[in-house]
Amino acid sequence: MKQSELLATLEPETAKIDAAMRADLAGIGSPPLLEILEHAIFNGGKRIRPALTIFAASLSGAGTLPADTYRLAIAFEYLHAASLLHDDVIDHADQRRGNASANALWGNSTVILAGDYLHARAFLLAGTTAGAQCLDLLGRATAAMVEAEFLQMDTAREANRAEDNYFAILRGKTGALIAAAAEAGAVLAGASARQRAAMRTYGGNLGLAFQLVDDLLDYLGDPRLTGKKVGNDLHEGRMTLPLLIALRQAEGEDRSFLEQILSLKSDDRAAQLERVRGAIERNGGFSATRDQAAELIRTATAELELFPPSPARQVLAALAAYVLARKK
Amino acid sequence: MKQSELLATLEPETAKIDAAMRADLAGIGSPPLLEILEHAIFNGGKRIRPALTIFAASLSGAGTLPADTYRLAIAFEYLHAASLLHDDVIDHADQRRGNASANALWGNSTVILAGDYLHARAFLLAGTTAGAQCLDLLGRATAAMVEAEFLQMDTAREANRAEDNYFAILRGKTGALIAAAAEAGAVLAGASARQRAAMRTYGGNLGLAFQLVDDLLDYLGDPRLTGKKVGNDLHEGRMTLPLLIALRQAEGEDRSFLEQILSLKSDDRAAQLERVRGAIERNGGFSATRDQAAELIRTATAELELFPPSPARQVLAALAAYVLARKK
Questions:
Q1: What is the pLDDT of residue B97?
Q2: Which of B10, B65, B243, B253 is most buried (most C-beta within 10 Å)?
Q3: According to the model, what pLDDT value does residue B44 have?
């Protein structure tokens, strides 16, 4: 399946996901709460998580979608949006996707509550559509997200540079919910334990690979395509995988340069972007990151072989390829 | 049942509730997260919500407790604790039950996340012990709590003094979760729809009456018994029911005095406590509040008649009487 076909297949699904969320939010009695939730949810998000639930359900159910699929799917978008709302309060972020963040517009108090509402609604939807097994998935994913945030705070204090720490945080913050979204679709469709595990691995790997490619695009992307400035991670002092690998590999001048760069102020660090990029390149940080992303996607795609060929399998295979190949 | 017998009956239940929470929290992998949760949960709370779940289950199940009763019961204590954690962040509170608040000790970021963890855990416990019906109760209670907070924020801006607004906020912030805790016990024990409704009314009324008595004790309580200074609500500018009723009833000098008191600064307002108390007393604010609390408790107690006599029914009747008679 070509990338253009993939996008043409995802587009109507995105519209149905959005419609399901609008219908669900119509029950809210408080206009100011609704205003915050609409700002948080209808902001051009890619709906990757609910799409995975839907295609995993289709794959596991041999093309027939269980009645509650969309209501279960939007639980994962809600949980994602709730965590972004709380993250932006925690990080004092005033921007989200190029717009003012909800906390910048309405203050921390209402945004914490709006996140709580979405959080509760997500659990309610998951539990009432797919029962205890899906609740368990959602509960574990939330616990993993919270524990990963705590690990990251500790790590920030200790300036820990272990790559396995990077992956532990990434699995908790990003991988856990995406893995749960895919597995939940399989659960809803009555998949076998082996199929559930396959969807879980597929989703988790997709999430990790997506982030590794993000790390690469942050250094190497074309701003005209990504819509973002390059070097943002360096500016913010985020130790992403390319830099971590380079730090482990570098010797001599590159090593001392990379070591001292971390102690600079953010603007001074950003001014060194070209040299940092060169040092990462020379020490294999970019190629090793790309190799790891490719390996994750290979494994994810191999898991799909467990299912008979179907349009849903084609979509999931194309999505995995897209995550790796994407330029934006 | 005498008050001393009631307390002697509740004490071992409180110990079992605490033990169930300790066992449940043992699965947490992050020591700093666990530290915050222990501070938030093991702080001398009365465990009213889980106790209601347990006695409602016992009442509805004719004395036999379903296996998962304690795991379901603690979900309500978790949700309560989660909402207090987020409330204290929202209110910038540095004290909780006479100790430093969690946000004062560990900062807002970690406390928001700790609340999210408890929130998720509560839904997971409710959904996996008692299924979709209990999840629905928990989801509605959370939505009611969040919407009531939004209503209160709006009300604060508009200085709205309607008594029905006071009750709407109280039902959402306090009544909804307590009603759900009692109803959930009935659901778990397989109660009839009529019995479920009875437990819901019992719990909701108990929660409202508890708060009305709190409002009275704040003006009239004995600090040696309550452990709190009197006049705290006046100092903080909280328009509780005694004052709202007096404002509606007062004429002439009392009316203009009560009107202007609200525009004073908090310390100047608190200095007028004696006179405010006199004006509320003269205009029936205290007696009308006490009458309303008594009526709520009468209705709650009448609902118990739906069940055959049992030790659990005696406990719930004694608890209702205690809520009204308590001096602390």
A1: 83
A2: B243
A3: 81
Distance from CA of B110 to the nearest CA of A (A): 7
Residue B182 lies in a domain: yes
Phi, psi angles (nearest 5°) of residue B64: -90, 130
Name the pTM for this structure: 0.92
Name the β-bridge partners of A99.
A96
Are A184 and A206 members of one domain? no
> Looking at A135, A170, A191, which one is the last position of a domain?
A191
Pick from A196, A152, A198: nearest CA to A174? A152
Instruction: Share the mean pLDDT of chain B.
Output: 93
Tell me what the mean pLDDT of segment B277-283 comes to: 97
Quickly list DSSP for B190-244.
Answer: T--HHHHHHHHHHHHHHHHHHHHHHHHHHHH--HHHHSS-TTHHHHHT---HHHH
Lowest mean pLDDT among A166-180, B53-67, B189-203: B53-67
| Residue A230, both tokens | 């390059």
Q: What is the 3-state secondary structure (H, E, C) of A39-52?
A: HHHCCCCCCHHHHH
Note the pLDDT of residue B325.
94
What CATH number does the domain containing A243 carry? 1.10.600.10
Does B138 touch chain A if contact means CB atoms closer than 8 Å? yes
Mean pLDDT, chain A, as a whole number? Answer: 93
Asked if B33 has any chain A CB less than 8 Å from its own CB, the reply is: yes
Domain boundary at A143, A174, A191, which? A191
Q: Do A165 and A45 meet the contact criterion of CB atoms below 8 Å apart?
A: no
From the list B82, B83, B128, the residue facing A132 with the nearest CB is B128
Give me the domain span that covers residue A307.
Answer: 193-312
**Cβ-defined contact of A150 to B33 (cutoff 8 Å):** yes
Residue-wise pLDDT for B236-262, tens only, equals 888 899 999 999 999 999 999 998 988
Interface membership of A153 toward B (CB under 8 Å): yes
Q: What is the model's pLDDT at position A97?
A: 83
- Nearest CB to A120; choose among B113, B123, B149: B123
What is the per-residue pLDDT across B69-80, written as a single tens digit (0 to 9) for each? 999 999 999 999
With CA atoms as reference, report the closest residue to A208 among A97, A77, A299, A119.
A299
**Is the domain of A12 the same as that of A153?**
yes
User: Do B157 and B30 touch, CB atoms closer than 8 A?
Assistant: no
d(CA A211, CA A219): 13
Count of domains forming chain B: 1
The answer to whether residue A158 scores a pLDDT higher than 70 is no
Between B10-19, B134-143, B150-159, the lowest mean confidence (pLDDT) is in: B150-159
* Strand ranges, E, within chain B: 95-96, 99-100
Any A CB within 8 A of B119 CB = yes
